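Researcher: Here's the sequence for the chain we discussed earlier.
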Amino acid sequence: MTFLLQMIPLPILLLLLLRPLLQPLQLLKLLLLLLLPLLLLLRLLFCVKEGKK
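Model: Thanks. This is the structure I predict for it:
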């Protein structure tokens, strides 16, 4: 069980804990705010990979 918890990223864990306090729309906004930097980072990494080829 603790292993599964360790596998879950902290932001998602925080979201699950905060979910009852948040309205669905706020939850969506929070998710977007968390995912946006991740997506940008992935894109940056992908661009760097493509640039090396």
